[in-house]
Structures are given as structure tokens and as C-alpha cells.
Amino acid sequence: MKVLLVQRAEVFSPNSVEKDKAILEAVGAKLCAAGYEVEMVSEEQPFNPAGYHRIFTMGRLPLTLDKLRDFPAINSSTGIANCARCQLEALMQQIGTPMPPRQGAHGYWLKRGDAAAQDKSDVQFAANQTELNEKIAAFQQRGITAYTVSAHVPGDLVKFYGVAGTGFFRYYYPTDDGDTKFNDELRNGTARHFSFVVEALQADAEKLAQAVGISVYGGDCIIREDGSYCVIDFNDWPSFSRCRESAAAAIASLIH
């Protein structure tokens, strides 16, 4: 049986082009070993999705989402579109995902709301309300009218990765290994490894993945000193660079 792998456009892989390609290749290797005929294409090149038993896609271009909307793709086009921050925040509110407050005493995060972050300027920290207003105005000058605002939450920044329905779930502290995309993680300082209930975070992440409509997911959360947490980011198909081989096996198992 034939399987198509769709590679993400480089604009959606800031500082992570090779890492994103590597996880897709690792999934392809697992599928090849299982006897499937695997082809990999970039969403930046023309391709025909017809005739494949299953499609595994990291694509985010609107044309790609439209092209794959009626095909059995992992992740689904609807789910990927739901990861745009404005839609995502609305879904999180609906299902009760722990979220950061809108107001706080430690600054604010302004995030592009109409698409995944494409460069560092799409996610910005503002130290106070005046600076936030200035950054919102700069967004609007760039033509970005959909955005989200949340308060900065002190605590440990944790990155989590999962494959819904498989039991695969991992979490890591970026400051432990220094592997960051935009260095925004450093705002929270070196992790102090506050105790928290991992199973609760996994349950919330799985519930959110189901609501969004994706199987392969990742996200960021803040663990407060008292063990409570809030999810500050959630997205479709991260690079899984810290756990690539085990993640690839879990993703490949979704073909059944």
C-alpha cells in the first residue's frame, strides 16, 4: 500500500527546517520497514494526493489544507487550521483547558492569531500595557489584525509532545539542554522542576487534541510553584527532536 508524506513549507519551520524534515523521514523509515511504499514531497511543490492508502502531512499552506481536506490525512486539514491561535484559544476556553490569565503583573505575550508563527516577530513579549499597545499597533501596521494577548506567567516552562490515542507522551524543560527556537523560553529563567501531575497534563493535552482535531501534537505549558499549570501554546506536528525515534514509531502506528 502506498503512503504519502507531505513536508512542511520552510516558512513554517523557523530555525527548525532540518528537525521537521527529520521526524517525517523517521516516520517514513518506520513505514518502509513495515512494508509500505512511501513517497515524500514538499508542500511547496505540486503534488497529487489521489491514490494513497494514507497521507501523513506536516503541511500548513492554505493550498495544501484545501487539497487534502477530503483525504484520510494525519493530521487533518480542519485540525491544522484549528491550531491558528484565535481558533485554538476559543476551543481551549470551550473545553476548560487551563490557560494563562489575560491580565497580570509580570508583562504580556502578544501572538499572531491568524496562522502559526513564521518568525520571531510573530510572538512578542511586552513588559507593560504601554509597550503592549505599541506592539499591537505594529502588528496592525503589518496587516495582522487577528492576535491573542495573555499575561506572562512565572514558573517552569515545559514543552510536551504527544500522539493521541497511542499512549505516547513526553515532556522536557528547554533550559535543561538549551535547545530553543526563538529564546523566548528564557523569560521564565532556568527550570526549577516544580512538582506537578504529569497524568493531568497528558489528559488535558489529549482532550485538547481531540477538540482541535489532530493526532500528532505538541505544546508549551507553565508549571507554577504550587504545581498548577497553564497551557500557553499548542500546535500540530512538532519536530519531536528530543524523542524522534520513539515518536516516529507512535506516529507510524496511526496507519492502522
Topology:
Elements: E1 2-7, H1 17-33, E2 37-42, E3 54-57, H2 62-68, E4 73-74, H3 77-82, H4 85-95, E5 108-112, E6 123-126, H5 129-141, E7 147-151, E8 156-163, E9 168-172, H6 174-177, H7 198-212, E10 216-223, E11 229-236, H8 244-252
Parallel strand pairs: 1-2, 1-3, 3-4
Antiparallel strand pairs: 5-6, 5-7, 8-9, 8-10, 10-11
Protein name: ATP-grasp domain-containing protein
Organism: Xylanibacter ruminicola (Prevotella ruminicola)
Comma- or semicolon-separated keywords:
32% helix, 256 residues, Rossmann fold, ATP-grasp domain-containing protein, D-amino Acid Aminotransferase, Chain A, domain 1, 4-stranded antiparallel sheet, alpha/beta
Describe the structure in brief.
This protein is α/β, with parallel strands linked by helices and about 260 residues long. The chain has two domains: about 1-75 and about 245-255, Response regulator (Rossmann fold), CATH 3.40.50.2300; about 85-235, ATP-grasp fold, B domain (D-amino Acid Aminotransferase, Chain A, domain 1). The chain has eight helices and eleven strands.
Order of helices and strands: EHEEHEHHEEHEEEHHEEH
Overall body shape: globular
Radius of gyration: 18 Å
Poorly predicted runs are none
Give the tally of structural domains: 2
CATH topology of the largest domain: D-amino Acid Aminotransferase, Chain A, domain 1
Q: Can you identify the CATH superfamily of the largest domain?
A: ATP-grasp fold, B domain
Protein name: ATP-grasp domain-containing protein
Organism: Xylanibacter ruminicola (Prevotella ruminicola)
How would you characterize this protein structure?
The protein is α/β, with parallel strands linked by helices and 256 residues long. It folds into 2 domains: 2-75 and 244-255, Rossmann fold; 85-236, D-amino Acid Aminotransferase, Chain A, domain 1. Helix content is 32%, strand content 24%. It has 8 helices and 11 strands. It has helices at residues 17-33, 62-68, 77-82, 85-95, 129-141, 174-177, 198-212, 244-252, and strands at 2-7, 37-42, 54-57, 73-74, 108-112, 123-126, 147-151, 156-163, 168-172, 216-223, 229-236. The strands form 3 sheets. A 4-stranded parallel beta sheet has the order 2-1-3-4, with helices on one face. Strand 8 (156-163) and strand 9 form a beta hairpin. Helix 4 (85-95) crosses helix 7. The radius of gyration is 18 Å and the shape is globular. The two termini are 12 Å apart. The model has no long low-confidence stretch (mean pLDDT 94).
